[in-house]
Write a structure and sequence with these properties.
Elements: H1 3-15, H2 23-44, E1 56-61, H3 62-66, E2 75-81, H4 87-103, E3 108-114, H5 115-124, H6 126-132, E4 136-140, H7 142-162, H8 164-178, H9 196-207, H10 217-236, H11 245-254, H12 260-286, E5 294-298, E6 301-304, E7 307-310, H13 322-333, H14 339-348, H15 358-368, H16 373-383, H17 386-390, H18 411-423, H19 432-441, H20 452-467, H21 471-482, H22 486-493, H23 499-508, H24 513-528, H25 537-555, H26 567-579, E8 583-589, E9 592-600, H27 606-615, E10 618-628, E11 631-640, H28 648-659, H29 665-676, E12 686-689, E13 700-707, H30 712-722, E14 725-735, E15 738-747, H31 755-769
Helix pairs in contact: 1-2, 2-10, 5-6, 5-7, 6-7, 9-12, 10-11, 10-12, 11-12, 13-15, 13-16, 16-18, 18-19, 18-24, 19-21, 19-24, 20-21, 22-25, 23-25, 24-25, 27-28, 27-29, 27-30, 30-31
Length: 770
């Protein structure tokens, strides 16, 4: 069997996998296949044969060495020799082994070394040192390989103690760079905290007798991660370890889980245990010997060395606020809680009764407002069940994967991250304590099979009462949870210059200025904690304008109506009326560009202008169409999809060409979309009508929910015009791979409530969105 036949055999094995081999059996079969080929190739090159060179062994490390080879992995091989073999002979053997694999495009990490050279490299490179602990002979001098394995183990036991600080720093830097499996919507199974690389470090530390051997729960976690990694690579047909949402759905079924959520909850729980175990092991080994200084941090809490611990004489069973004081001190100082302290609190800390003592409630607010340190403090409590002891309702969102791809974190991490973001906004609101509590609870209703805002409000009410908040404060927290999506929903999907829109928001929150201020801050914190690009300057501006108009109405002042055209825009409209040609004005407010286009009234504007902006990689957030002195005027607000806005002169020229029909928009947009198409399946678009929110009987409000595509607004606007609908205004809200576009429509036939007209509009819009 040559190397090409080896690859073909591996592909056949992978192709036959489903229905025949479970993931573990597949890994074992791959190991057997590659080991068979390597042993035959080594024998053909003379390794381990009477006629071949003595003192040579082919050894495997990495996945092949551990017998954990997953599909599409590189082979990590070392040609080991005793130093007596001629260089030319070594070159001949190496070429006989490496070149066929390279020719067959098998990933290969290789080296030719003596045992002394391998040990020398391992002294300076901790990853190489850990790799040698997995060494396994494939062919040749077994005694030579066994000697290196024994020496590598002995050297590791010495070196790891000398260079432990370097190892710990490398692990924590990897955590910082790759995040944590248990907190990520799309985790890196290999590099993220709690993943397979952490398991390898734990196994290496156990060889040095710095931790216990990996068995029981952690051994099961390792098998689960290897199985997921195996299925992921089978699904993608390539070397990749980041588990995407689409692949997780398929893999959950292949591994016998009910759904993606069940798979990820088990993965998250296991990764949390791995990460915590390694963190404790690193801190334990780093702890200096001898007497350590005890620095008071709070009543019953000290900093003992580099860890937060209980003071001598502290009585967890008699001090109901002590657990929260420990967590708050850890969050403020950025120091971890000692494992022994957590164990003591887990054994002794009482369950807080309703209502909580005022001191415990105060410590909770202090903890929630501690900033970035909150993340590790909550994670430490959660790992030993202390966080759910404080907040039993947390169990429903713990390790809960997000339903929307725009979210970067699982639900419980998102809630904690929202508190981190809210802590930066506490000086902007009159009740920072309620802001922090609302931030912690705003998504507490998720994962329960109903509208999470509605069910979450009821859960939040019970929790706020248990915390001992006053009745008015309970109402405010409940309102924050019930209406935490109100401001972004209205600002990005409705015309906020309309008085009725503002009045509906004020009526919804009961005219409470306090609730309005808290919802404003919570909207920003929630968006920032969702993922990159969710809280944009444009969204901040829209929400801020809506809040300002609501404040005016609450004060008794009627908000101003729709903003008239600026003097520059009026001049533009006049010039277009006189010349009979399209005129374009581009102005910028930071990254948001305002594009005003004026043209004779019989010229269509929204569709071609939206298409020109899409070709310039600008995303439209809002659009308005009106008439001024018999001239059609379109005002669009847009921001770059990435990078910086295009040159204003070039953008003006492109818009004029689009409006006058000299730019082939459909063809160019199709090419651009193909270039940027992610290749993922698109959701089926839907259309909804909202008559109760339309401004007047002559206006119909249509909402399109669809996959976010380049040029979507252009296609939909074109379809609306063809279907006999004129657009008064449009709002575009993007949520990762999907979007919600709202349009205020008038019927060119007269009645926007006509059922036949609406069916025609729906068909046209859905066809354009597909």
């Amino acid at each position: 069997m040559d190397a090409g036949e080896l690859v073909a055999a591996a592909e056949r094995l992978l192709g036959r996998r489903h229905g025949r081999l479970v993931a573990g059996e597949l890994r074992a079969a791959l190991v057997e296949l590659y080991e068979f080929w390597l042993s035959k190739a080594a024998a053909a090159a003379g390794v381990g044969t009477p006629d071949g060179p003595g003192g040579v062994a082919l050894v495997a490390v990495g996945g092949l060495g551990r017998r954990e080879l997953v599909p599409y992995s590189d082979l990590d091989l070392v040609l080991l020799h005793d130093g007596t073999v001629a260089t030319a002979e070594l070159d001949r053997v190496a070429q006989a082994l490496w070149y066929p694999l390279w020719d067959a495009k098998v990933g290969l990490d290789h080296a030719v070394r003596t045992a002394a050279e391998a040990l020398s490299v391992a002294r300076d490179d901790l990853r190489t040192a850990m790799g040698l602990l997995e060494l396994r002979v494939i062919a040749g001098d077994e005694q030579l390989a066994a000697g290196l394995a024994a020496s590598a183990k002995q050297q590791w036991q010495r070196v790891v103690r000398q260079r432990f600080a370097d190892l710990a720093a490398a692990v924590r830097e990897r955590w910082r760079r790759s995040g944590q499996i248990a907190q990520s919507a799309e985790p890196d199974l290999k590099h993220a905290g709690g993943g397979l690389r952490d398991i390898a470090v734990l196994e290496a530390l156990s060889v040095a007798q710095l931790t216990d051997r990996l068995d029981g729960e952690l051994a099961q976690v390792k098998r689960l991660m290897l199985d997921i990694r195996t299925e992921l690579r089978l699904e993608l047909r390539r070397n990749r370890d980041v588990l995407g949402a689409e692949q997780a759905d398929k893999i959950a079924g292949d591994l016998g889980f009910g759904d993606r959520s069940a798979l990820l909850k088990q993965l998250y729980a296991g990764a949390r245990a791995v990460r915590y175990t390694l963190d404790v092991a690193l801190r334990t080994a780093e702890r200096p010997g001898g007497r350590q200084r005890r620095q008071p941090l709070a009543e019953g809490v000290v900093l003992h060395g580099s860890e937060v611990a209980l003071a001598r004489g502290a009585a967890p069973g008699k001090d109901p606020a002590l657990l929260l004081r420990v967590a708050s001190a850890a969050a403020r100082t950025g120091k971890p809680v000692a494992h022994g302290t957590l164990r003591t609190l887990a054994d002794s800390a009482p369950e807080l009764r309703q209502p909580w003592p005022a001191q415990a409630r105060s410590e909770l607010v202090s903890l929630l407002g501690s900033g970035e340190g909150l993340l590790d403090a909550v994670e430490a409590l959660d790992n030993l069940g202390l966080w759910t002891r404080l907040l039993p309702e947390w169990g429903a969102v713990r390790d809960l994967p997000p339903a929307e791809p725009v979210h970067s974190w699982c639900v419980d991490r998102h809630l904690v991250q929202t508190c981190v973001e809210a802590s930066k906004l506490t000086t902007r609101v009159p009740r920072p304590d309620l802001l922090l509590i609302g931030a912690l609870l705003h998504d507490i209703g998720k994962g329960r099979g109903a509208d999470h805002s509605v069910i979450g409000a009821e859960i939040a009410r019970h929790m706020a009462e248990r915390l001992g908040l006053s009745a008015p404060d309970v109402d405010i927290v409940t309102g924050m949870v019930r209406h935490h999506l109100l401001l972004p929903h209205v600002a990005t999907r409705r015309d906020i210059t309309e008085l009725e829109t503002v009045r509906r928001v004020v009526d919804t929150i009961g005219g409470s200025a306090l609730l309005l201020d808290l919802l404003h801050a919570l909207t920003e914190a929630d968006s920032l904690a969702t993922g990159p690009g969710v809280w944009t300057p444009w969204k901040a501006r829209l929400v801020g304008e809506l809040v300002a108009r609501c404040r005016e109405l609450i004060r008794g002042d009627e908000p101003a109506g729709p903003d008239p055209l600026t003097p520059d825009q009026q001049t533009l409209a006049k010039r277009a009326g006189e010349s009979g040609r399209p005129e374009v004005l581009v102005s910028s407010d930071g990254p948001v560009a305002t594009v005003t286009v004026a043209a004779p009234r019989d010229v269509s504007l929204l569709a071609p202008v939206a298409g020109a902006l899409a070709l310039s990689s600008l995303e439209v957030g809002a659009a308005t169409q009106l008439e001024d002195s018999g001239v059609a005027v379109a005002v669009l607000h847009a921001s770059p999809r990435f990078g910086t806005p295009p040159d204003a002169a070039l953008l003006r020229e492109k818009i004029v060409r689009a409006v006058t029909g000299r730019l082939p928009l459909a063809e160019q947009l199709a090419v651009k979309e193909r270039d940027y198409d992610s290749g993922t399946d698109r959701v089926e678009p839907t259309v909804l009508w909202f008559d109760d929110e339309a401004e007047g009987a002559d206006v119909a409000l249509l909402e399109l929910r669809a996959a976010n595509r380049i040029g979507l607004l252009h296609r939909v606007a074109s379809a609306l015009r063809t279907a006999g609908a004129s657009v008064s205004w449009a709002r575009v809200a993007t949520f990762g791979a999907s979007c919600v576009d709202a349009f205020a429509l008038r019927s060119t036939a007269g009645n926007p409530r006509d059922a036949a007209w609406r069916r025609s509009v729906e068909r046209a819009v859905l066809a354009a969105a597909r």
